Amino acid sequence: MNTLENILKKLPAHLVREFANVPDPLLEQLEEIRLICGKPVRINCKRTEKFLTENISKDDLQNILNNLIKFSYYAYEEDMAKGFVTIEGGHRVGICGKTVIKNGEPALIKEISSLNIRFAKEIIGCASSLIPILIKNERPISTLIVSPPGCGKTTMLRDIARILSRRKIKVAICDERSEIAGMYNSMPSFDLGPRTDVLDGCEKAYGISMLIRSMSPDVIITDEIGKVTDINAAEMCSVAGVSLITSVHGNCRRDILESPISTLVKNGTFKNIVYLSSAEGPGTIKNIECIKEAAHDS
After folding, report:
1. 0.70 surpassed by pTM
2. In the chain, what are the domains?
């Protein structure tokens, strides 16, 4: 529970006292701490939620955010404009409040009204069953992870990076949202293996080409592909002979065929499509679709 203890140190004393009364089995399954001004704290666990008793004040929210980012507003300025910050340990803090617009784009969130502390999970071995389809003839195979929100796609990508890297495969992660690696002080917060390079906070449209040119990877791993510029970058991987493992929100094949990445699916960019659910917890593999041509890649 070191991770939780580190977070609790940033919370007001009255909340720390409340958390002391939450049963350990519930805390061990903790996924989110949700804080809304004027409302009691809500904690979301694996398959349940619990409300604490004391309400959160506006000052509580501001003090919690100050402590979580160590008062380093300049360092987190760009992320905060997007509505979140990634803190030590790779955990993401979502932020709501009054948005300040400059030049037609969000530039700042002030008057904080709610925070959502999402705990990043590392489940070593959760992708082990995918090894037979991820590697063929000692080469990584392009794979798409399809998952609804909260079903463990980022956790799965983390473990895939670790597995491939430990099998003498050069892995590069384009971590646009700083969620896969959780980089902090130049180091990842999770075990990504000994051959994994991380480009943190860079849009996929730029990051994928930068990694291809500078790091000579065998495979690039990234999360939540979907924009038109992402698709162009994915096609660049195919041209360069670099495998791509990424994810998209969805539940079934129809969802992805109706999404912006349908072209990539139809043209065979991905040789495997893995569908996740939360039926038995995050990272549950619901179905695997393998494209036969993968066996003949050279």
Report:
1. yes
2. 2-118 (3.30.450.90), 128-296 (3.40.50.300)
